[in-house]
NUDIX hydrolase (Dongia rigui), 360 residues
Amino acid sequence: MPTSKDPSFAAIIPEGDNRLRQVCTDCGFVAYENPKVVVGAVVTLGEKILLCRRAINPRKGFWTLPAGFMELHESAETGAAREALEEANAKIEIEALLAAYTIPRLSQVQLIYRARLIDPAISAGVESLEVGLFDYADIPWDELAFPSVNWALTQFASVRHLSVFPAFGNPPGETGDHHP
Amino acid sequence: MPTSKDPSFAAIIPEGDNRLRQVCTDCGFVAYENPKVVVGAVVTLGEKILLCRRAINPRKGFWTLPAGFMELHESAETGAAREALEEANAKIEIEALLAAYTIPRLSQVQLIYRARLIDPAISAGVESLEVGLFDYADIPWDELAFPSVNWALTQFASVRHLSVFPAFGNPPGETGDHHP
Ligand SMILES: [Zn+2]
Ligand SMILES: [Zn+2]
């Protein structure tokens, strides 16, 4: 396993690189660690917005957007649609990129798309306790799973009636950590 | 090493997952493989655009945007600025997200920002043979390193005089593979 606990791995700057990596001293394999990509969507049916209550940790019991880790060999848009299907049995059509966030503490990039529910039949997938369609005024703001869910919903509201809008990044000064 | 060549790893669906992963049969470590994130920028100085001629493979000798793999614990914007500094000694200011591309064959997400050169002094970093500032009409289209460089430059041109514009994705039907 390419971890620093493996005795054959050592922290070495590989040739042509400029920082320490975990390198196998037996065979030279460089175990690059990379940021992870989360893909998700703000999914609407008319004025209503799809949220999922998490059945798993972290933040079990809190509400989130359908989103999850992007798989190999899929596009970001396909991944976002796959997550909506897995978590809410929701068939969606991707419309536009809403935001590209970074959570440096978690080395996580989040690509959040705006999407349309193309079949009103939704139900909880294995990672959801329940799913629901919420009016913006009824969003359970105090029970959202992650700061970035709040960002996406707020930013979405500011452009929801525009067909063309620039993609957002993190709100100024925000890093994705929970505020006390 | 968590590869399928390691005899202690086997293809297993971990509990709570829904697809085969490489799992160590000794200790249960799941070697998730994740898409990689490339961050880069279309950097301008007035009407001119910064390009770098690659000193390394793949596509050594061809022209590209300053871009490279995002590191752990940095934001995408910081990463794009770092790459411009490493590859072209270019100090830049990120303006807006230009595009989020996916290259499924390479399991690669590319986040390309629009940026402004804040100091006209540029020079080749170790991964560049030379760097240059090009008028759009003088871009060496036949010597661009990757299809996504072409996409970014073309899409950039379509919005360069707009201060607000939607982020692009892959052009319709394009997957990032070279056309014959
Ligand atoms: Zn090894
Ligand atoms: Zn093991």
Remarks:
- The interface with chain A takes residues 1-2, 16, 18-19, 24, 27, 29, 31-37, 56, 69-77, 86, 96-97, 100, 102, 104-105, 107, 109, 111, 126, 164-167, 169-170 of chain B (CB under 8 Å).
- DSSP finds two helices and ten strands in chain B.
- The longest helix of chain B spans residues 76-88.
